Every structure is written in C-alpha cells, then in structure tokens.
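User: Predict the complex with zinc ion.
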Amino acid sequence: MTNFFNLSKIEDPQLEDYYAKSMLELNDFFGIKWKHHTPVVFVVNDRDTINILHGEETGEWIVGWISGGNIVFVLNKDKFGEHSVHKYDDNDYYKLIKHELAHLFFKVITGNKTDPKWLWEGVSILVSGQAEKWGKPAGFKGFLDGKDVYIESGYALLLLTKKYGDDKLIQFLKAYKDFDGDVSVLFKETYGLDLNYGTFNGLLRS
Ligand SMILES: [Zn+2]
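Assistant: Here is the predicted structure with zinc ion placed in the model:
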C-alpha cells in the first residue's frame, strides 16, 4: 500500500514556456481569463506511480491525465522510452500538456462535465493541435459511440470549426453547461445539423 508521495518544485524554463503558451491560447480559445487557482502540473516519474495515482493499471500509451479542477499529471519527459510506448518529441509533449490543460478548461466552461467522450476528448485534441498533427481519418464511423475517439473526434471538430468557426463551438459548450438532455438536440439547435456520421462524412468530403 502506498499513500504518500514526494513532491518538490521543478525549475524548467522549457516546461514553463509550454505552460504559459498553452494557458494564453486556451484562455483565448475558451474566452475566459483564468486567474485564481490556476492549473498545476505534476510530473510523474514511473509507470508504477502512474498506476497508483490513476487508481488502476494503465496502458503504456497513457502519459497524461487530469484530476479535480486544476491538476494535470504527465509522465516525465525523460522517462518516455522507459515507461511508455511513445517516442518522446518536444512538440508532442507541448501538445500533451495543452491537451490535459484543455480538459480543465472544458470543465470550467461546461460546469464540470466530462462527457460525452467524443466531445470531451475531441475538444482537447482539437485545441491542442493534435487533430491537425494526427491527420484526417478515412471516414467517421465510431466516435459518436465512444469508439476510435482519438482517431476521429478531434478531426470531426476541426472540420466543424473550419466551417462554422471556433465561436460557435464555444457557444455550444457554454449552452451545454445548463443543458441536461440529449446532446444531439443541443447540437441541432446550435448548428442546424444532425449529430450523426453522415454529417461529419459530408464535411470531410466537401
Ligand atoms: Zn484527453
């Protein structure tokens, strides 16, 4: 049983730079000014500790997650080779940090929502720049049902925002805060589109 962990501050200008750039862009994208209790990032050094903090065995692809309202955990960049399946890359690491921070912004703007999974992950994949980096899927066929969310949902939102703008997505997320029904109803109200694969495959081919 392990319930105690060592914590100490890190002085790393590169990481601070990634953080500052992410926060600036995320505040801008989500249209807020996060000033108090701003996010903190805990750097974890090994898979064992990740599993304990995460509360379950994690796959080697998991290198970041969030906790509560302002905490991000990421695997130490120097431990990627040893404790993950990912090859370390500076730019990918920046996007990873931004992806996790974006989840915290999503919670702020939607009043603590973390679902549906395609929207929750899609927004982070979109705003972190991962959607553009990871590229276009062959077609949309699973993300709305929680399948292939990492492959499809970010790009789906990229196509949506390219056509209708970022502001429309923010309007949708803000409205989602006070909305308890089926998200497809709100989607239809906001975009005038049916929330189905046909809609996104149409955007992909237009
Ligand atoms: Zn995520």
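The longest helix spans residues 90-110.
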